[in-house]
Amino acid sequence: MTIATALAAGNVALPQLAEAAVLEALGKCGLSHASGVLLFLTPEFARNAQAAVTAAARAAQCMQVAGGLAAGVFTEAGWVLDRPAAAVMVFGNGLSLGHADASDAALLSYAGGTVPPEWNDDRARFGGSFSGVGAHAEPAVWQQSRLDPRQRCSVQILGADARIGVSSGLRLLGAAQRVEASNGYDLERIGGRSALDSLERALPAGFDAPANAPAPLHQLTAVLIDAEPAPHGSSAGASAPDAAAESPMDDAQAALAEGRYRPLAIIAVNADHSLTLAERTVPGQRLAWAIRQAVPAEADMRRTLDRLAAAPAPDCALMFSCIGRGPYFYGGEDRDLDVLRERFPGLPLLGAYSTGQIAPAMSSAGRRNRQLHNAAVTALITRR
Strands 107-112, 125-130: parallel, antiparallel or unpaired by DSSP? Predict the structure, then answer.
């Protein structure tokens, strides 16, 4: 066994928790030292993160320790939120962590606060970001056993490949429609109706209209659909409008599966029947309405794993889930984690609950990384 995980929790955020987790994982592997360690800590470690990282490096006899603070952590053994915890994955016997090389392998990337802009358009990345929550507002990120003042970590799992999938957890409420009028962050008209009228017409039966019940807004979202890549030899400007005009429901579904979308939170319902969104929209863009509910989200996670589960069998898995997607969303249990454990029993798994998730968007026009929210990004790692 060359990969193992461990989860250690306590009442106080002591460096010994990180040390204990590393020693337990090494014991599972039968190793005296590691060639790489992924370490994620809960926010209670914000003030002594470096001491915990140093303790992990000393226990592993390895300087390649990477990771960061997260809202919560989990392994195949379970999850921990709202108390100090350390989750680790150790690598050995030919697998290790290292800097990016000239290959096209995806980079495991983690950031504090916001994702660096230069990560958007370079090689494929997967991971997450944490901007701090509650009283523990200071994020921290480390690489090579040292806290990075830039709050970013970018490592390659040497000797392995990653298959990456994204579960958006969204159920579309209809086909994408054209934005007709907007004013800053306010979406005014779409598909021949006011934004609010369009949303209310799309709602499933029995769901309270946002104008009368503001609370359900957190379950609803706008989904901005990226333009369909132009055919080879054609300009995007010439072909994209026609493709958008004829775009049926299945094209919006395909956009979710392929990563050609950006979820935009609905911030407010306005008196003029416009909706304030978390991002500006402009006329001509395509936007669909979607809902976040537990049962469809779990089904989406199953479909994501179905797409990833091709041979060869993975050696381990990494998952970055939104803090709003785990036990807080599923009523005290993490059904996404349960689905992965059911599909791959005994598979070493390391995960973090983050405030943002990072994943590549694949299309025939190229590859672009994106930052997501309320998503679960899963990477199945296979020895090369």
Answer: parallel
